[in-house]
Design a protein that fits this description.
The protein is an alpha+beta fold. The protein has a domain of 94 residues. The protein has 14 helices and six strands. The protein has a six-stranded antiparallel sheet with strand order 1-2-3-4-5-6, with no helix packed on it. A hairpin with a 4-residue loop joins strand 2 and strand 3.
């Protein structure tokens, strides 16, 4: 390895490692923030939370890596330009492509590695992570009753606490509304002092109450609506056992086995081909049934036999039945026959509509399955290819800007990544909703950013002026003068 290659390699690797972990931390925190409601107040064990953050970090790598490469490339070549090292290399006759060669080889290995990582590691990590997320959602929250407001964390009950005794770990002046038997059979309990504990197996709550009263509505036993009995109980001490499973139960990973996020290229390809054949077969079968059964034929919907029979009875001409026009028959029939025909037509159309609705839902389900799997298939390639595109944007842009550090490069990188994220998200949405073909939506961001990368590389390689304000002022003045001549 040449000294110049070794020098660039060391500079780039150091910056890439730093920026990658910073970006990965931000992406993981953003993902966790989206699911904070599933985590907060659940009392999930630290070991389980550690696994969740580990899987979330693995899943976020394909998103964080392109931005880290963009930022590291921009900072590396910005530092070279700011220290005039890039100018010295070019003065010595070394082209920009030769300077980028060692890093380009490294990025090629990263792109290949990112693809295999997305294909083999990401599906497994996503299966485990989403299994934990669904497990978190079913976990009962930890019991933390606030003061001065109703707490509904216990199923079927609302608890109101006026104050707390921290030393005795007791709740004071408590009201418990029990709606577990329905609102009409409510049970209201008040107590001066209440302590809430869990059983050893954490499957039940033990509510111990001191000095209180209990009022129970007995509407089920009422013989008349205006005379509803109730039961009143005064107690010194009382205990209530309530079912409240506070244990963490992790779902089986087979829950995610058939989801697109847990499949690699081979499984996605197989399932896409299978559902494509099934979807096309369903569409053809449903279309054939509609036309073969003549469901949209006015002759069948209008029940021409009934009309013809009535007219034939009047004219005593059975042989002329097939020569009648349906509109003529309907116009000359009796009111009772018209009503029968209308009812028959409405019933027939309702049956057709129900069949079409059912068939449409089946086909839409197949389309949804196809789109999700196809999007995930393309995602394996687009995220890896984005690493290469961002390198060809960051390296020449850093050489043009000639600014290192985390100031200008960070601002430019974030702005470019936001543009990429918006375009990529829009393309994925278009693909999932069948507005565009899947490949069009998934490769939209690459189609937009690749020409920008080629343009910036060309400008940096030819030392063309790109950010010179005087050049743009001259272009604006020429355009303004041209428009003034046209308006005159």
């Amino acid at each position: 390895m040449k000294k110049i290659d070794s020098y660039l390699f060391k500079n780039f690797i150091g910056l890439l490692a730093i920026t990658f972990f910073i970006v990965l931390f931000i992406v993981v925190m953003q993902f966790v923030w989206l699911h904070v409601d599933d985590l907060v107040g659940k009392g999930v064990p630290l070991a389980i939370l550690g696994r969740f953050f580990f899987y979330a970090s693995l899943v976020s790598i394909p998103i964080a890596l392109p931005l880290a490469i963009l930022l590291a490339a921009l900072m590396t070549f910005g530092n070279l330009g700011e220290r005039l090292e890039l100018l010295a290399m070019k003065t010595a006759g070394i082209s920009l492509f030769r300077i980028m060669r060692s890093l380009l080889i490294l990025i090629s290995f990263i792109v290949i590695g990112a693809f295999f990582f997305s294909n083999n590691v990401i599906p497994l990590a996503q299966k485990k992570m989403w299994t934990l997320v669904f497990s978190f959602r079913e976990k009962s929250p930890e019991l933390e009753v606030p003061t001065g407001e109703f707490y509904s964390g216990v199923k079927g009950r609302n608890i109101y606490v006026r104050s707390k005794d921290a030393k005795k770990k007791a709740l004071l002046d408590v009201m418990i509304y029990d709606f577990s038997q329905g609102f009409d059979n409510a049970n209201v309990t008040t107590a001066d002092t209440v302590r809430i504990t869990s059983t050893e197996d954490k499957k039940y709550l033990v509510i111990s109450m001191i000095n209180g009263e209990c009022f129970e509505n007995l509407k089920k036993q009422a013989k008349k609506e205006d005379n509803i009995p109730y039961r009143r109980e005064v107690f010194d001490t009382k205990q209530i056992l309530i079912e409240f499973d506070a244990n963490f139960k992790e779902y089986d990973e087979s829950l995610m086995a058939n989801q697109h996020v847990s499949k690699n290229i081979q499984k996605l390809t197989h399932d896409i081909d299978s559902v494509s054949v099934l979807r096309d077969s369903l569409k053809k079968t449903y279309a054939d049934n509609l036309w073969q059964n003549k469901l949209f034929d006015k002759q069948h919907i209008g029940n021409i036999d009934l009309l013809a029979n009535e007219l034939d009875t009047k004219e005593n001409n059975k042989s002329a039945k097939n020569s009648y026009n349906i509109d003529t028959l309907f116009a000359t029939s009796s009111q009772q026959t018209m009503k029968q025909i209308a009812d028959f037509a409405v019933s027939k159309i309702q049956n057709i509509y129900s069949d079409v609705q059912y068939n449409t839902s089946v086909i839409n389900e197949a389309d949804y399955f196809y789109a999700r799997h196809n999007v995930e298939w393309h995602l394996k390639f687009t995220l890896s290819f984005a690493c290469l595109i961002f390198f060809f944007i960051g390296a020449p842009l850093g050489a043009i800007i000639n600014k290192g550090g985390l100031g200008m490069p960070a601002v430019v990188s974030i702005a470019l990544f936001i543009v990429y994220y918006i375009i990529n998200t829009t393309g994925q949405k278009m693909a999932r909703e069948h507005i565009w073909e899947v490949w069009q939506g998934m490769w939209l961001s690459s189609a937009v950013l690749l020409p920008i990368g080629i343009f910036l590389t060309y400008k940096a390689a030819t030392d063309s002026v790109l950010f010179n304000s005087e050049t743009y002022k001259k272009i604006i003045s020429i355009a303004t003068g041209f428009f003034k001549k046209i308006t005159k």
